[in-house]
Here is the input.
Amino acid sequence: MLIGLVGAPNKGKSTLFSAMTMNEVAIADYPFTTINPNLGIGYATRKCVHAEFGVKCNARNSLCVNGMRMFPINITDVAGLVEGAHEGKGMGNQFLNDLANAESLIIVVDASGTTDSTGNKTVSANPSDDIKMVNKELVQWLAGIIKKHMNTISRRNDGADALYEILAGFRATKDDIEASAKKAGLSTVKPNWTDESTLAFSDSLIKIIKPTIIAANKSDMKESEKNISALQKEFGKDNIIPCSGAIELALRKAAKTKVIDYTPGSNSFAWNDKNISQDRLNAIKYMEDFLKSKGTNVQELINAAAFRLLDNIVVYPVEDENKLTDHFGNVLPDGILIKRGSTALQLAEKIHTNIAKGMLYAVDARTKKRLGKDYVLQDNDVIKIVSAAK
Ligand SMILES: Nc1nc2c(ncn2[C@@H]2O[C@H](COP(=O)(O)OP(=O)(O)OP(=O)(O)O)[C@@H](O)[C@H]2O)c(=O)[nH]1
Ligand SMILES: [Mg+2]
Here is the structure.
């Protein structure tokens, strides 16, 4: 899975990226620090089911730390986006192609309002304007790609199929394309859409193929509070996550040097080494208070982008439903992210095509009941797939 960080320049995308992945990247207080995309691995976390079953797990495809399963997620951080990028302003929008394969996006804004929409210092900028600008540029990006191919598309009877060929790399399915055309009131038979129609189509499609959550970053700054309330009012509380990439990054760095023992996502930490300079002591005390009062919410951001936006659940396939083990005796080896509504057969397909082909039935490890191939998986299910295939 790939999650993309996108936003205007100088909002803290690379700081969040670094906090999420622990990759060292360029971070600076001026626009366009990032030019080439950064790619790294972060973790989405969920409470592991091992405690419920009273067992100790040997996690294989994901780590299990302090009772939390950590699912590796690819994260990418790209250059800053400015108004008119689709017409070549700033760094243009070519770099957005690095987000084509992203499943969800985190739009990063500066909640303090101390940087303007081009990333320069200001006072009282409205971060809501940046959200609108980014959404508009994302739509223009997609529309631009479609427009480039409109000549070819318009000659095809099955225009949805032609669009699919172009947009499959953006994770669009034919169903998504048809639904978006319908929503925009457009026909896909030999479509010869105007620019306006293409924009309307792109607006619908991008919402489906690139669901977004907003990171109201720099929540540690005093100016942020009133802007966060206003953003939550305008965009809905669930869509705005106040966060501090800078504090999360500092915490992770302190944990790396073993000064503190900090698990991302937790609202406290153990303090191992107080034999440090007064400045560092003050900084760590400040972070301790910040965690208690507000939280950095960086873990929450990854989790929202990996689970909530994509409606993913976690299921644990096992080979022995009594011991909860795989072939090698590993207990609860794999946690698998799968779309809510998926069936036991779809889980089998994720494991191996041959297992799916030979699938007979499944077994629920909690109830030991037999489940059909069309059983709809539930969050945290532990499932044995019984297949004629080995
Ligand atoms: N106070 C505070 N400052 C932050 C936070 N996150 C980032 N910053 C600062 O904001 C400035 C820009 O951070 P970057 O991470 O380089 O921002 P960016 O969005 O990647 O910028 P570009 O690559 O230029 O688009 C730096 O001075 C960071 O230290 C935060 O949570 N709180
Ligand atoms: Mg950057």
